[in-house]
Design brief:
This protein has about 280 residues and is an alpha/beta fold. Helix content is about 35%, strand content about 20%. The chain folds into two domains: about 180 residues, Rossmann fold; about 70 residues, no CATH class. Helix 2 crosses helix 3, helix 2 runs parallel beside helix 4 and helix 3 packs across helix 4. The longest helix is centred in the C-terminal third of the chain and has 28 residues. It starts with 20 loop residues before the first strand and ends with a helix. Bound molecules: adenosine-5'-diphosphate and magnesium ion (MG).
Length: about 280
């Protein structure tokens, strides 16, 4: 479906009923037992419904459970209670790909081999793998580095390898955990634009964690704000800017207004999380 010019409810077809959610998070909580006894209640209870082809951004103070939530959605971590349902009715062989905060790429494999990895797991023949990998490497400006090992790359380039790897397998659901956090401001903007272009051409369900409200408003169809730990959802806004979008949307007066509203909600949570951190020391 084409959402161009239809800013609200990305899960809905024009005039039709809303599409069934692609991801449903129901009453999910997660605690971690540290030193054998004391448990840290990291997350929830949290309910969240993410529509098919929706680009959802999650913001919240550091330590509030964003990565924990993403890992639970990815199936890498079990919730302590509650459940996650993902509709993978498409015929994709790999339903979910995740881009980690710390890249998650293998230093002993070349850049191309890293990107080919997911394709290999899905059983694609070698020539096809190479073709797809090289295509994504060139889209992300890494064509000249295909045979290089990640150790020789900058942080920004490594993160692009990790993004190329996730996109190459064309997952139904793309989970991204602060993928641009380690990059300098200029590179970050370049990659944000790139991701916008890629996503607008080929819409997938995306859950994108960021601590940047600007990034969330630029990229997302919807932004949810999480509270201080244990993270719950305290605000949920639909981003009204039309697609296709570019970074020019930042100059829209509504952008500043929405940023202000989100920050009002987030501010006290950041302070609360910070104070909780002080108590522990
Ligand atoms: N494997 C773990 N063991 C113990 N505590 C953890 C573990 N993973 C996360 N936590 C704790 O859970 C809380 C939420 O962590 P995380 O999800 O990484 O937050 P965020 O991504 O929002 O910064 C933090 O207090 C963190 O220390
Ligand atoms: Mg995190």
């Amino acid at each position: 479906m084409d959402h161009a010019g239809h800013p609200a409810s990305p899960g809905a077809t024009d005039g039709g009923p809303p599409a069934a959610p692609r991801i449903t998070v129901r009453e999910v909580t997660r605690s971690f037992v540290t030193n054998g006894r004391s448990a840290v209640h990291a997350l929830g209870p949290l309910d969240l419904s993410i529509g098919d082809a929706e680009f959802l951004c999650v913001v919240g103070p550091s330590g509030c459970g964003k990565s924990t939530l993403l890992k639970i959605i990815a199936g890498l971590l079990a919730p302590s209670s509650g459940e996650v349902a993902i509709d993978v009715s498409g015929d994709h062989r790999i339903p979910i790909a995740m881009v980690f905060q710390d890249y998650g790429i293998y230093p002993w494999k070349t850049v191309r081999a890293n990107v080919e990895l997911g394709l290999r797991l899905s059983g694609r023949p070698p020539t096809e793998r190479r073709e797809i990998a090289d295509d994504w490497l060139s889209r992300l400006g890494l064509a000249d580095f295909a045979d290089v090992y990640p150790g020789a790359l900058s942080g920004g380039m490594r993160q692009r390898v990790s993004i190329a790897r996730a996109l190459a397998i064309d997952p139904e659901v793309l989970l991204m955990d602060e993928p641009f956090a380690a990059l300098d401001a200029q590179l970050r903007e370049v990659l944000q634009e790139e991701l916008l272009t890629i996503w607008q051409a080929r819409r997938r369900t995306v859950v994108f964690v960021t601590h940047s409200l600007e990034e969330a408003l630029l990229l997302g169809d919807r932004v949810v704000v999480m509270s201080a730990r244990p993270g719950r959802i305290i605000a949920d806004i639909t981003v009204p800017f039309e697609r296709p979008r570019s970074s020019e949307v930042r100059t829209d007066p509504l952008f500043a207004k929405l940023r202000g509203e989100l920050w009002t909600g987030l501010h006290s949570e950041v302070v609360a999380q910070f104070d909780a951190g002080k108590d522990r020391r």
